[in-house]
Design brief:
- This protein has about 45 residues and is mainly α.
- It has 1 helix and no strands.
- Helices cover about 70% and strands about 0% of the residues.
């Protein structure tokens, strides 16, 4: 039983690390692109 808990914890830790890497990569891409300011009216 303890082995299953350890395996589950290891899988969870790996999934969280991968998720963090993915989110950081997305944040880097988003920060590279100029953002539109939603408070400014659209230019026509």
């Amino acid at each position: 039983m303890a082995r299953q808990d350890k395996d589950k914890a290891e899988r969870l830790a790996a999934a969280l690390r991968e998720n963090l890497r993915r989110r950081k990569a997305q944040a880097r891409v988003a920060s590279d692109q100029p953002k539109k300011d939603p408070t400014q009216p659209a230019s026509e």
